[in-house]
Design goal:
Layout: H1 2-27, H2 33-63
Helix pairs in contact: 1-2
Transmembrane segments: 6-29, 41-60
Keywords: Membrane, Transmembrane, Transmembrane helix
Protein name: DUF2759 domain-containing protein
């Protein structure tokens, strides 16, 4: 079960980084500026959740 949570966390973190890059590019287009900021905000939140999931499961695995 821990391996699946770590895998999901890694995938979420990678997707969040890609979404952040896309949102950063969208900022440069006048018509998509607000959407780009929203994408960047949600990608940062997703990255924190994904990285936190990975870190928590790695530290739990090290204790056993």
């Amino acid at each position: 079960m821990k391996e699946t949570l770590v895998t999901i966390g890694i995938i979420l973190a990678i997707i969040s980084v890609m979404a952040f890059v896309v949102g950063f590019v969208m900022i440069f287009f006048e018509s998509r500026r607000k959407l780009g900021l929203k994408v960047m905000l949600f990608s940062v939140i997703g990255f924190i959740i994904g990285f936190g999931t990975c870190f928590a499961n790695f530290s739990l695995g090290a204790m056993h």
